[in-house]
Amino acid sequence: MEKTKNTHTIGRGQEFERELVELLVEVYTAPPFEMSDAAFSRAIFGDNTTSTGRWHRIKKTSLTIGKPQNLTVAQAVEAAAVLGMDFPSLAFKVFERLKMKRQA
Known about the structure:
The chain is mainly alpha-helical. Helices cover 61% and strands 4% of the residues.
């Protein structure tokens, strides 16, 4: 576990979640999807007035300030499906990215 400036502990689960969110953003904003945040959030959370705000809070959350907004496993499975992937493949990509970052 890693300590942050404010002495909050960042666990492996939080590290995985942050990397997952980063990867999702990279994938849905690039070809062939080229989706906006709003379109992606509606695809995950449904077409309602809170979906875009919810995704923005998850995407921009700070691990050290305020109450973290988490991406649930169900939401991650739905996000993978929206991008034409299965969740285990998406999770594997996240683990590989984390491994590369730790080796760098």
